[in-house]
Design a protein that fits this description.
Layout (H helix, E strand, L loop, with lengths): L2 E6 L2 E6 L1 H29 L1 H11 L6 H4 L8 E5 L2 H18 L4 E5 L2 H10 L6 E4 L5 H11 L3 E5 L5 H9 L4 E6 L3 H9 L1 H8 L4 E4 L2 H9 L7 E3 L14 H10 L8 E7 L3 H14 L5 E6 L5 H10 L4 E3 H6 L6 E3 L6 H7 L2 E4 L12 H4 L5 E3 L7 H10 L2 E3 L3 H13 L1 H17 L3 H9 L14
Parallel strand pairs: 3-4, 3-6, 4-5, 6-7, 7-8, 8-9, 10-11, 10-14, 11-13, 12-13, 14-15, 15-16
Antiparallel strand pairs: 1-2
């Protein structure tokens, strides 16, 4: 095996060459596939999300007619985001790239089923094609690269795969990591295997990070200073939700909401969190306040399970699909689809951002901030530490530790209208003040090849 002695901020270690990492990774992957095939084959077959994506991620289809219409343009820029959150993060950057280089110059991929569905909704108008990201096997990666034939690759946030990076490196295709973040927890894990991570990170031509703290952590993993640039968080550059009063009225009618009912939206909740929400709701209702709780699970496929949690707690609940088929009014409505959370936040009186009362790292609080709503979240916000802390410091958000504190703050924000409006204004001010990361990102990664002379899709 090829070892290279190197001195890094991690100390004097034996840094493995990229070829060594590549060899070991594929050896272990093959061993795991062979040993665990009796488990993963039924898993793929019986889980509908895996069944729908397995072939598409294993074997990327040849270009369709829409792709072929743009065959005389430059090779495309390939933009990739992991799942729903990363897709939404990527939207402002994709829009900017489309305006600069043209729709026909961009191809977008997502890894998960829900991420792909979201990309089809919000990204597809701005790119030549939306595809599934390949599994990180040599065959699947080579197939995808041969189909897309990118001139550059832009990865949004974190989805780093050894075979993919190795093939890009072999083909001399520049790759950029943008909107990158490295939580304390992730950094601690990476630091233990820094001799493996450092060669992977060295492949990137530029890494654009969200904060100075992120830059220090990447630097400590061996990334050279000239490859790092702090540009801010492109999530701030998402367009504020603009929903007409008629649209809000239609959504309210669909949800069976009365005109005077306080609305509490809990977005991107995780397993184990809904039980805590039901406890908080019970405390709120015992006080004489009767809000409607709208729960949007991070995985919409859990909607029926979430309904059962509330029903077992004695709170009648329905999914949005059930309410569309049979009208009615219920204390809890569970959202069973993606793409409407931003509108729900616009409808809310109080917003709770999930993944934070359980150890899931939290989710994006900028969605409710962009519509000037007071924000609550739990103590587990590692994935959005800087944003959450900034919102707290500005008075636009409150952190709660348990269901009792959550109930107390929801009650206060429902009753105290002035505090509600003040927190909402402060949250929006944080959102507005920190915009501009997309422009800084594009300036940092530099020209991604010439803009095409012909853009047939925009004629």
């Amino acid at each position: 095996m090829n070892f290279q002695q190197s001195k890094s901020p991690l100390g004097t270690t034996k840094a493995w060459s990229f070829g060594s990492v590549f060899f070991i990774y594929n050896f272990l992957m093959l061993a795991v596939i062979c040993l665990l095939w009796p488990i993963w084959v039924p898993l793929v077959w019986f889980r509908i999300k895996h069944r729908r994506t397995f072939i598409k991620r294993s074997f990327m289809a040849a270009p369709n007619r829409r792709d072929l219409e743009s065959a005389d343009t430059q090779k495309p820029i390939w933009i990739h985001a992991l799942s729903v959150g990363e897709v939404l993060s990527a939207e402002p950057l994709v829009n900017a790239l489309a305006k600069h280089y043209g729709v026909a110059s961009l191809v977008f991929t997502a890894s998960t089923y829900t991420g792909f569905e979201m990309a089809m909704r919000v990204i597809s108008p701005h790119v030549r094609a939306v595809r599934y990201f390949p599994y990180d096997t040599i065959f699947s990666v080579n197939r995808a690269l041969n189909v897309i034939r990118p001139r550059q690759v832009v990865i949004v946030e974190t989805d780093i795969w050894p075979n993919f990076l190795h093939r890009l490196n072999q083909r001399r295709i520049p790759v950029y990591l943008v909107n990158a973040r490295l939580s304390e927890r992730s950094f601690s894990g990476y630091k233990r295997i820094g001799f493996l991570i450092s060669p992977l990170l060295s492949v990137f031509s530029r890494i654009c990070v969200q904060t100075d703290a992120d830059q220090l952590r990447f630097r400590a993993l061996g990334v050279s200073e000239d490859k790092l640039k702090t540009v801010g968080n492109i999530k701030f550059d998402q367009d504020p939700v603009r929903v007409s009063s008629d649209d809000l009225k239609q959504l309210s009618d669909k949800l069976g909401l009365s005109a005077d009912a306080p609305i509490w939206v809990a977005g991107s909740t995780h397993e184990g969190e809904e039980k805590l929400l039901s406890n908080a709701l019970r405390v709120i209702c015992a006080s004489g306040i009767d809000p409607v709780l709208i729960v949007a699970p991070r995985d919409p496929g859990r909607a029926m399970d979430v309904c059962r949690i509330f029903n077992r707690a004695g709170v009648e609940s329905r999914t949005l699909d059930q309410m569309e088929r049979k009208k009615g009014s219920f204390r809890v409505v569970v959202i069973d689809r993606i793409g409407i959370l931003r509108m729900l936040y616009a409808l809310a009186d109080v917003a709770f951002v999930g993944g934070s009362l359980v150890k899931a790292g939290g989710h994006n609080p900028l969605e409710p901030a962009s519509v000037a709503k007071p924000i609550l979240f739990g103590s587990h916000t590692d994935d959005f530490r800087w944003i959450c802390q900034t919102l707290e410091n500005a008075g636009g958000a409150i952190r709660v530790e348990d269901p009792d504190q959550l109930a107390e703050q929801v009650l206060e924000l429902i009753v105290n209208k002035e505090k509600n409006r003040c927190m909402g204004r402060r949250a929006y001010a944080v959102f507005a003040k920190n915009r501009g990361a997309v422009e800084r990102t594009m300036a940092s990664i530099g020209p991604l090849g010439p803009a095409p002379q012909i853009d047939r899709l925009n004629r």
